[in-house]
Hints:
The chain is an alpha/beta fold. It is built from 15 helices and 14 strands. Helix content is 38%, strand content 14%. The longest helix has 22 residues, at 327-348. The chain is globular, with a radius of gyration of 21 Å. Ligand KE4 binds at residues 28, 30, 66, 121-123, 126, 149-151, 162-163, 211, 215-216, 244, 246-247, 271, 281, 405.
Amino acid sequence: MVNTSIRTTKSQEIFAAAQKLMPGGVSSPVRAFKSVGGQPIVFDRVNGAYIWDVDGNKYIDYVGTWGPAICGHAHPEVISALHTALDKGTSFGAPCVLENILAEMVIDAVPSVEMVRFVNSGTEACMAVLRLMRAFTNREKVIKFEGCYHGHADMFLVKAGSGVATLGLPDSPGVPKATTASTLTAPFNDLEAVKDLFQQNPGEIAGIILEPIVGNAGFITPDAGFLEGLRELTHEYGALLVFDEVMTGFRIAYGGAQAKFGITPDLTTLGKVIGGGLPVGAYGGRREIMSMIAPAGPVYQAGTLSGNPLAMTAGIKTLELLSKPGTYEYLEQITKQLADGLLKICADTGHAACGGHISAMFGLFFTSGPVHNYEDAKKADTAKFGRFHRGMLEHGIYLAPSQFEAGFTSLAHTKEDIEQTLAAAQDVLSTL
Ligand code: KE4
């Protein structure tokens, strides 16, 4: 179904051509709007909290290029810093002081990180951290949680979230059984299931990797005691605890979810925000573990564009902006207004819904809930979510095109933007 009330002629033309050139017409599956129906809009430009599509329609954006745009798109100070950096070249493939600067900012901010390695995506960071976990413990098996997404590397495509969940894929063809045989899964928030896995695989589990707040099965928060329980279990069984903070890093708090909840993992992966909109990922943690990474140690990992000056520049400026006093109080305030408002409108218009927010991350499920894990999330009415998404798009509000994604606010969103969004939701949900 095509969005009728807004003119999307050029988007349709460009997307039709794209589908002949690229699988599904996109560079990443979730962008194709498969699960919400309708056709994706083709972006022309972004600025602050807003998107303009190729037909000139303007939208308030709650995807923020999937997290990086937490200071608002094309922040003038980030753009200006990039212009200056560009005059010195785009990539060195050699040491550059900007890597030291961003590394120091990450180490100072994130409790678990004593040393850090930059890569070019969250997927790369998660791949590297898995290899490191296995090398450090000399064990092969790893626990992940159903619905969590740690990038598209083979060993993580087991009951994965995000686009895999969105498309309802039964994991992915092309992944050797031997590769995923070492990937064990448990329901999120289920400490007993994790304990059972440790007891069934004595001395074989290298560690646990999780999204401390799930953003890839929709928005699912950790139950009280869950993260503490994982910390205790990993200590008890000599395994490592890894927080995948690619999405939550510098979004939930300046030190990430681990700072917010006061639980320090052994290793952390980062991405999105620390690149300020350019391709960056990172992994870091205890010095004794990170010192195993080549060339300091034997665990190999490399990358042509890792630590490039442009990505470092955008990351440094973004973290500088985020480190200013009042940042997270503002994000909490506007995101609470949005999330609470959406839930109230659902209640007022008779739609079973649950969800919420933590700092600048929020979610809404069309199910009465509660949603503690991926099984609960799958009870949500995804067809209704699709109609809601399309209705909001026609009202100039751009939400993540999947029930199994989270929403993101930014420092650029104003109170008026939130009020306009809630007014649109009132309209759409009253007639859904
Ligand atoms: P990237 O390789 O996409 O930079 O990062 C993978 C990744 C790892 N860990 C977590 C917790 C993540 O959320 C992600 C990527 N998130 C998705 C959005 N749910 C990226 C959007 C997309 O795949 O197009």
